[in-house]
Amino acid sequence: MSNLKLPIYFDYSATTPVDERVAEAMIKCMTFDGNFGNPASRSHAFGWNSEEAVEEARGHVAALINADPREIVWTSGATESNNLAIKGVAHFYKKNGKHIITSKTEHKAVLDTCRQLEREGYDVTYLDPEPNGLIDLKKLADAMRDDTILVSIMHVNNEIGVIQDIAAIGEMCRERKIIFHVDAAQSAGKVDIDLEKMKVDLMSFSAHKIYGPKGIGALYVRRKPRIRLEAQMHGGGHERGMRSGTLATHQIVGMGEAFRIAKQEMHAENDRIMKLRNRLWNGFKDMEEVYLNGDFEHRVAGNLNVSFNFVEGESLIMALKDIAVSSGSACTSSSLEPSYVLRALGRSDELAHSSLRFTIGRYTKEEEIDYTINLVKQAVSKLRDLSPLWDMFKEGVDLNSVEWAAH
Amino acid sequence: MSVYLDNNSTTALDPQVLDAMLPYFKDIHGNPSSVHRYGRLTRNALEQARDQVARLAGARNEQVIFTSGGTEANNLAILGALSHKAPAHLAVSSIEHASIIEPAKSLFKKGWKLDLVNVDSGCYILADNLKSVISEDTRLVSVMMANNETGVVQDIQSLKQGIQSDQILFHSDASQVAGKLPLNFNEINIDMMTLSSHKIYGPQGAGALIANRSIELEPVLYGGGQERGIRNGTENIAAIVGFGAAAELAIKQLEETQKHLRSLRDQLERELAAMQNITLFAAESDRLPNTLQFAVNDFDGEALLMLLDKKGIAVSSGSACQSSAGAPSHVLLAMGVKPELAKHAIRVSFGRNNIAKDVQILIEALKDITLIQHKSMCVG
């Protein structure tokens, strides 16, 4: 085990390292001997060369999702893409209605944006997912109204990795002329996306979840039927006025390269990652009081979210210093609240608190999985040994029937 | 051979900055919001960069809010400070970058009163002009510290003092000033200031709004609660680290850089002054040490830019963001320059990488091109 680099990284859904090939492409667009120009400069070759690099990258992003490059708008990341899509549509189409449908398990960038729109007078329905994390399409249909202008449902959940049936939801929205936005930050490069076939109108992407750099993302904006947006960032009129601000050439080139690699390698990579993920789950699943969070079948290859009952998640993370995992989304991990995603699935506070998210990626090795299985097993059994609740459970006490004294 | 004289548009990354950034692509790749070791390492890097940028700004680290660049910082200053308030009045100078003018116009569409304060022929905002539009209704004033086209530096401290109201937020876009002149946010006593990384040999994709903590800023982007909830979205660590390293270098090299830039600019100015048919813009004004805007009279600016590019010389007519619009510079028009002449404007902006020989190459090229052109024009 001595050749393992510790801590082992199991947090690929929070962020990924930049692929070497991506870093190389980026470095070529930064210093004086490279393509450092401002792509908006129209008066010299430095600007034109950068613009060319930006457009090539746009082509790579479009190719992965089978879209037209003209449908890709660069942003500073998926958070901005989600903000632009949701606020941009809500503001532009407010005359058609002020009702928006989303789900309780969306990323904060979607939920907080929707809450802001509520403050502005919009009406938002937050759908409860089923216990397996998936949206019941009938409940979605029931929530749709004449004044519904937008449905925003994520493709793959960042915490539990479940894959929603985007194609079916797209059909439902198109039938009713409702605009459909999908946060695909966690699915691009992991799940097939074909926007010629899928009736998605807006789709958010991030580079740093698929081995590209942080600080760059994209929003797909459908041209046919045409979707209009009110800009959220105003200025020099870049990106056809939808998103102003100097285009960061090296970051865009990095995102393009990451998407190019993903298109070439994702199927083989998924097979490999799925094997590792299943190996990890097989190592845990026979332990006592272990629960898988989220549907196993409709799930992205690299995600395993497990609750170890009678163990407190934060203590478990502290006991697992040799591995880098999270107990939820990175964006909310600094708070000690239990995951709102797991709570939305109907998990008890206790189970939500005892969850760990393992996300596996391009550089995960089999020996790291095996090492981790042992480590987790040991830590869980040690923590349970210290837990009075575990003792009571082992003695057959029904903990739900215990009346706890108030202090 | 190529000569890059468009450093106000963007600068090439300093190799030392690249070295500082590289570990954050590969080895230290965490998300600063993660509690594990990888997350902590990036969080530490984020805070170190915050210190570095604060020092460049003459501010405290808790006053630094990282953004995706100058445009976002300007949007945050205008929309973040005002969009949650009842419509009232704001005043911005007429020579601002589009990333100030456009958000101001978007507020105008939502019922705000907007004054675009004009400049005199030297590109200065006059304190009296500014005062004359201020009323009890005024919530915010934004005047850029130095103009990106003419390079003219405003006396922000006097303008701020002239307003004499603590109720009015004062913002200044200092994107072009950083690294060229000293900055002292807390001393000039303004409320908000914008900085951009890629104008100081740092990477594109990072910027900052320096803001007093007492200002209530509504986010432009909602989400995961980063930057105290004011600027949400996973921090662009590598770029922010690069911004920090660039800020550090800018502080260290300020005196030397200033001297170097000024000597190149003055050399060019002397050469141009000795030529015929040249108009220098705002040459009597206090300007950034690296910037010079001029026109070759009667010589189409667009054509000149293209002919210079063919000779490997990169200059621009003004702001890169508007260089596709083809319209004469709004800054020169505001100074009272005639549209026909404004259309011929050429902006030269020197950078650390330029050398004295670059000035000679430009002068030779100008002489070469304009001579030939003048001859052929005589025939027509």
Question: What's the gist of this structure?
Answer:
The complex is a heterodimer of chains A (407) and B (380). Helices cover 37% and strands 13% of the residues of chain A.
Could you describe the 3D structure shown?
The complex is a heterodimer of chains A (407) and B (380). With 407 residues, chain A is α/β, with parallel strands linked by helices. Chain A has helices spanning 20-27, 45-64, 78-92, 108-119, 137-143, 166-175, 249-284, 313-319, 340-344, 349-353, 366-385, 388-394, and strands at 8-9, 72-75, 99-103, 123-127, 148-152, 179-183, 202-206, 217-221, 290-292, 303-308, 323-324, 355-359. In chain A, strands 2-8-7-6-5-3-4 form a 7-stranded mixed sheet, sandwiched between helices. In chain A, strands 9-10-12 form a 3-stranded antiparallel sheet. In chain A, helix 1 (20-27) packs antiparallel against helix 7 and helix 3 (78-92) runs parallel beside helix 4 (108-119). Chain B is of the alpha/beta class and 380 residues long. Chain B folds into 2 domains: 3-10 and 254-369, Aspartate Aminotransferase, domain 1 (Alpha-Beta Complex), CATH 3.90.1150.10; 15-249, Type I PLP-dependent aspartate aminotransferase-like (Major domain) (Aspartate Aminotransferase, domain 2), CATH 3.40.640.10. Helix content of chain B is 40%, strand content 14%. Chain B has helices at residues 15-21, 37-57, 70-82, 98-109, 127-133, 156-163, 185-188, 237-273, 301-310, 330-334, 339-342, 356-379, and strands at residues 3-4, 64-67, 89-93, 113-117, 138-142, 169-173, 192-196, 207-211, 278-281, 291-296, 313-314, 345-349. Chain B starts with a strand and ends with a helix. In chain B, 59% of the residues are buried. The model of chain B is unreliable at 374-380 (pLDDT under 50). At the A-B interface, helix 1, helix 2, helix 3, helix 4 and helix 7 of A face helix 2, helix 3, helix 4, helix 8 and helix 9 of B.
